[in-house]
Design a protein that fits this description.
Keywords: Membrane, Transmembrane, Transmembrane helix. The relative contact order is 0.17. It contains 2 helices and 7 strands, in the order H-H-E-E-E-E-E-E-E. By secondary structure, it is of the alpha+beta class. The chain folds into 2 domains: 1-35; 43-144, Immunoglobulin-like. The chain starts with a helix and ends with a strand.
């Protein structure tokens, strides 16, 4: 009877051991995949600015002459993460009138500037985003009514 009991215990021990080892192995793999390396830089700190997404909009539409408007710039990196601490500015002109705007950070990846356009029409210029030594220049067109 003792030999029969040992045989039963071995049969029960083997499947349960494989199950426990399998579960532990799966947990280790899942933990490894979820774990982030604390020394790895954020993508926005180590990526090329040419791959960033830069979009603008006006908070107050339509943009009208002699009414204050807030322009907003959204900057995201190639991984669609907000780009923080960038320097954002634009120089736009309409005929002989020129406006230079410095955008201030509002929250992650969102920058704003207030402007008062003095004449209607199409204002064209260059939007500049600078992060460290890298700079993006993107054309911008704003229609003022």
């Amino acid at each position: 009877m003792t030999e029969q009991r040992k045989s039963i215990e071995r049969k029960q021990f083997f499947p349960s051991t494989i199950g426990i080892v399998s579960i532990l192995f799966m947990l280790i793999i899942i933990g490894y995949q979820l774990m982030e390396d604390p020394n790895r830089p954020e993508p926005s700190q180590n990526s090329s600015l040419e791959e960033w997404h830069v979009e603008w909009t006006a908070k107050d539409l339509p943009i009208e002459v002699d009414l204050p408007s807030t322009l907003q710039i959204i900057v995201m990196d190639e991984a669609n993460k907000w780009v923080k601490n960038a320097k954002v500015k634009t120089v736009i002109q309409n005929n002989s009138q020129v406006e230079e705007l410095q955008f201030v950070p509002v929250e992650d990846g969102l920058y704003e500037a207030r402007v008062l356009f003095s004449s209607p029409g199409l204002w064209r210029g260059t939007l500049t985003v600078q992060q460290g030594e890298d700079t993006i220049n993107q054309p911008i067109e704003i229609t003022v009514k």
